[in-house]
Write a structure and sequence with these properties.
1038 residues, alpha/beta, 3 domains, two-stranded antiparallel sheet, 42 helices, solute:inorganic anion antiporter activity
């Protein structure tokens, strides 16, 4: 029994730290590899099997190490041994909340335990005024107090796996382990017991008592004090025994000590993870004590000790330190050291799994082995260190084979997953995609029932509507109305709904692309020159393109995506983001033509400024035909009295000094549009960052951040209505019919064209296929990045198949073609990021992944199709506001692109450069060379897209893959593993590498067939190898 081990240690230190194991005790252990050269991978866990005596004897004879020599391990190795033991139900580590209470004695008042600090992840102290908690900060401990804590564990009482139901039982067990002495007689025992049973006064009780019912902050009002929160952490409730005389004297009875729900810090409990347990640290000075009383207690199971802890969660650990007067500060620092070590990830696990005192000491020694010491003359201990944004992983301390962040790149991860492996069967990849996504289909709808999804839907609906209508308008101008805004709305809605329902990656948003518009312009011009039917030829091209895409799906051609590395992804994504930013600014600039600035105005002539409507001096044939058809008598019209609308309907002309390019001069419009544009961008950015601000409760900040763009649009629309300046508004078609009367919703692929045009359409269809494939798959790769932590898998083959099917449908109906839109998809993913709700004070919320669902995309495109019926509302949205949203999407999508981080390094001195992982392992000149190559490729892509050769843009995107392949000759494999993803190697090379690795493994196993024992510390050749336990045993200070 572990609780029988708790006796006073008389200082036999060598027996505590110099632990000797027989070899057979270690051979079946699952994570301890001492003196063995093992491959740097995590080993599979094997269950411990009992060895027979015959087997053990054979193993002893096989090994040449004398039995009496034993095994002498460092604290780190022993901790790894402890953490590698099989877990049972009673010793599974839980999250810990640690509370530090100190005994407080006031004149004329009864003594009580007062809460002075608490730890969930970082330390929080009760400020000197006693009115509030401090900000969370990184605990800084004195090395002296850590050594004193170590001494306390060695020489104090250690009770492990104690079964107790109340504080009274624990106090009795602790006192029973104290050796009787003249300084610690029965009277002293009774007094100590009485102190241990004193009432605990928590900070939240004082806070609530001082608050007036009326004077409460908004943050307090918003706290939902729901009783169901008490059921969140795991609890072990036990019946209370009948009160004793001492308990009744101190007012500690089952009735009075029960948890008062009105005083519980229920808001703080939201920060505590489910299933968490408590660790109570009780320290203080007592005048009647002549020697310290130290006890470390681990309860099994954890017990809810009413009134002991600030929050109603079961207690697992107690550390008690009571000593003579005059050393309050020293005891306080030892208590802080104990509480801080309990928050350490490694010691926390050791405390749960320790089997004796020696294990706890090894845990403290391992902690001392890892601590950083600050020189006293260069640091002020009173300064509170802000919690870091990222905390390094502690896995390398727990397991000998674990890799740290820097070494993890030594063996790069496989770029392609199971989704991109060739099946060798016709449509094999498509079938596997369907099987992979089918089990998640219904959960894709359940997971969409979230407020965050509503915010994402409202934001992206506005963001998608404008480019679709704008693209339709540009297409209408290029094709003389054959395909315009109405066709664009219907095509986007149909394609988006089908894709959202059945695609492999519904997070991808479909949209129109610039190269498609260029292709449509060239095709229309060609048809006009050769008197061909544009819509019929376009239908043939679209059907061939759809067929080729289906062929690519059937042959698992999407596996070629594995050649698209970060180099190609970032060049393409950067280009699309820059295009968004450029076009947003360009559209704002174009408003000067419609709403010019009246420069160099002469204020003295303001009284004679005018803009009159007059009949056209040289009316066109079209104008004359309109006059005749409407029976307009030009000579009988008083042109000077017509309104602007009437003048335009009669095709009149505006003349006068107050006229602009397209009508009367409207003052202030351009400047007001600029204000709306930049205000939208700035306000969206500020509201998005509001989540990390210090104002308002977390729930309010999160909601505002989620609805940032939608709230911005609503605010700017209201401001625009209030100001009343006639800014240009969003125009949505209000009648559901084709733009031209001479076309219907179904197009004949041949029509009036010759039969050979069906075969001639093969050539442009091949070019379109490359365009569709590259646009779709590069965007899909960006969405499916491993950084997004997607859990439901992806479906490259299924995505391309759905795009191909809808491309064929849109071609037959004479609608625009839609493919994955990079910036909209990135924005969609970013708007659905999920972070941990339960984060410790001071700890940054952890990124958990993306809310994978189909609801947002489905609702966006369903509502887009219904927009024809919402024109009365949509007509109030100013176009500059939507341009500002484009600018925000372009800028926000640039964040996280490594290319721009590397681009900024050109202007940074080395000492000011961020601590990027690739800067640690790749020479700066190589980083700059990699960035320059990527920049040149980006400039080339931009130049081609902006020129008449834009039709070959997809070919140039494809060329990036070959450029990246050539870079293998300029950079080493290790450098590319840090700067980019490694390209997949040929099958022959893979087989060759596999053979080499197999040979290396055989050599390693041959060399390490025996377990080497580390040499004793006295014979150590390398002075850098320190066993801190041995060194501590040599000093007499502790």
């Amino acid at each position: 029994r572990h609780d029988e081990e708790a006796v006073i240690d008389q200082g036999f230190f060598s027996n505590v730290v110099n632990i000797h194991y027989e070899k057979e005790e270690l051979e079946g252990h699952r994570t301890l590899y001492v003196g063995v050269r093992m491959p740097l991978v995590r080993q599979s866990h094997r269950h411990h099997r009992a060895h027979s005596q015959k087997h053990r004897k054979r193993e002893r004879e096989k090994d040449a190490v004398p039995a009496e020599q034993g095994y002498h391990y460092t604290p780190s190795q022993r901790v790894q041994f402890i953490l590698g033991t099989e877990e049972d139900e009673q010793h599974v580590p839980h999250d810990l909340f640690t509370e530090l209470d100190e005994i407080c004695v006031k004149e004329g008042e009864d003594a009580e335990w007062k809460e002075t600090a608490r730890w969930l992840k970082f330390e929080e102290d009760v400020e000197d005024g006693g009115e509030r908690w401090s900000k969370p900060y990184v605990a800084t401990l004195s090395l002296h107090s850590l050594f004193e804590l170590r001494s306390c564990i060695i020489n104090g009482t250690v009770l492990l796996d104690v079964r107790a139901t109340s504080v009274e039982d624990i106090a009795d067990l602790i006192l029973a382990q104290q050796e009787p002495s003249p300084e610690f007689d029965e009277r002293t025992r009774a007094k100590v017991r009485e102190v241990l049973l004193k009432k605990h006064h928590h900070q939240n009780e004082r806070k609530r008592n001082n608050l007036l019912p009326i004077v409460r902050s908004f943050a307090d009002v918003s706290k939902k004090q729901d009783l169901h929160l008490l059921e969140k952490p795991a609890q072990t409730l036990t019946p209370h025994p009948s009160p004793t005389t001492a308990e009744a004297k101190n007012g500690v009875t089952p009735e009075t000590s029960a948890m008062d729900l009105s005083k519980a810090e229920l808001h703080f409990m939201k920060k505590i993870p489910s299933g968490a347990e408590a660790s109570n640290v009780l320290v203080g000075e007592l005048d009647f004590l002549h020697q310290p009383l130290v006890a470390f207690v681990r309860l099994t199971p954890a017990v809810l000790l009413s009134g002991m802890t600030e929050v109603p969660i079961p207690t697992r650990f107690l550390f008690v330190l009571l000593g003579p007067g005059g050393k309050a500060h020293q005891y306080h620092e030892i208590g802080r050291s104990m509480a801080t070590t309990m928050t350490d990830e490694v010691f926390h696990d050791v405390a749960y799994k320790a089997k004796d005192r020696a294990d706890l000491v090894a845990g403290i020694d391992e902690f001392l082995d890892q601590v950083t010491v600050l020189p006293p003359g260069e640091w002020d201990p009173s300064i509170r260190i802000e919690p870091p944004k990222n905390v390094p992983s502690q896995e390398k301390r727990k397991m000998p084979g674990a890799l740290d962040e820097s070494s993890s790149h030594s063996k790069p991860e496989k770029h392609s997953g199971p989704e991109l492996e060739r099946t060798g069967r016709l449509f094999g990849g498509l079938v596997l995609d369907v099987k992979r996504k089918a089990p998640w289909f219904w959960s894709d709808f359940r997971d969409g029932l979230s407020l965050q999804c509503l915010a994402s839907f409202l934001f992206l609906y506005c963001a998608c509507m404008s480019p679709v209508i704008t693209f339709g308008g540009l297409l209408g101008e290029a094709t003389h109305g054959h395909i315009s805004a109405m066709e664009s709305l219907l095509g986007a809605s149909m394609t988006g709904v089908v894709y959202s329902l059945f695609a492999g990656q519904p997070l991808t948003i479909l949209g129109s692309t610039g190269p498609v518009l260029v292709f449509e312009k060239i095709l229309y011009k060609f048809c006009k020159e050769y008197t061909l039917s544009y819509l019929s030829l376009r239908t043939c091209i679209g059907l061939w393109t759809a067929f080729f895409c289906v062929v690519l799906v059937a042959t698992d051609a999407s596996c070629l995506v594995c050649y698209i590395t970060r180099f190609t992804e970032e060049a393409f994504a950067s280009l699309i983001c820059i295009i968004f930013i450029y076009e947003a600014l360009e559209k704002l600039s174009h408003l000067r033509e419609t709403f010019p600035v009246h420069m160099h105005s002469k204020l003295d002539l303001l009284t004679i400024y005018y803009c009159k409507c007059e009949p056209p001096a040289h009316p066109s044939n079209e104008t004359l035909q309109i006059w005749r058809s409407n029976g307009v008598n030009v000579s009988g019209i008083t042109w000077g009295n017509l309104t602007v609308t009437e003048c335009r309907s009669l095709h009149g002309e505006f003349h006068g000094p107050a006229c602009g390019h397209s009508g009367p001069y409207a003052p202030n419009v351009l400047f007001w549009c600029c204000i709306l544009f930049f205000s939208t961008f700035v306000l969206s950015s500020l509201l998005k960052k509001f989540k990390t601000s210090r104002y308002f409760p977390t729930r309010v900040r999160s909601t505002v951040s989620d609805f940032a763009v939608f709230l911005t649009i609503v605010i700017m629309v209201l401001i625009d209505l209030g100001i009343g300046i006639p800014s240009p508004k969003l125009h949505v078609p209000h009648v559901f019919k084709p733009t031209r009367d001479d076309r219907g919703w179904l197009i004949n692929p041949i029509g009036p064209n010759p039969w050979w045009t069906v075969l001639a359409a093969l050539i442009p269809a091949l070019l379109c296929t490359i365009l569709i494939f590259m646009d779709q798959q590069i965007t899909a790769v960006i969405v499916n990045r491993k950084e997004h932590r997607l859990k439901k898998g992806c479906g490259y083959h299924l995505d391309l198949f759905m795009v191909a099917v809808m491309l064929g449908v849109c071609s037959v109906m004479g609608l625009p073609w839609f493919v994955a839109a990079t910036v909209l998809s990135i924005t969609h993913v970013n708007s659905l990021k999920v972070e941990s709700d339960c984060s410790a004070p001071g700890e940054q919320p952890k990124f958990l992944g993306i809310r994978e669902q189909r609801v947002t995309g489905l609702m966006i495109f369903v509502l887009m199709g219904c927009s024809v019926f919402f024109t009365s509302v949509l007509k109030f949205i100013p176009m500059p506001v939507l341009y500002g949203v484009f600018l925000y999407m372009g800028v926000s999508s640039l964040r996280g692109i490594q290319f721009f981080d590397r681009l900024k390094l050109f202007w940074m001195p080395a000492k000011h450069q961020p601590d990027f992982i690739y800067l640690r392992h790749v020479p700066l000149r190589k980083v700059h060379l990699f960035t320059l190559i990527q920049l040149l490729c980006l400039v080339l892509l931009w130049a081609i897209k902006a020129s008449r050769a834009a039709i070959i843009f997809p070919m140039m995107v494809l060329a990036l893959v070959f450029v990246r392949k050539v870079m293998d000759f300029c950079f080493s494999k290790r450098e590319l593993s840090f700067l980019d993803d490694l390209m997949p190697e040929s099958k022959k090379k893979k087989l060759d590498d596999a053979k080499n690795e197999a040979k290396e493994e055989e050599l390693k196993l041959g060399k390490t067939s025996r377990v080497d024992t580390p040499k004793p510390s006295s014979d150590r050749a390398d002075p850098s190898e320190i066993n801190i336990s041995d060194e501590m045993s040599k000093t007499t200070v502790w």
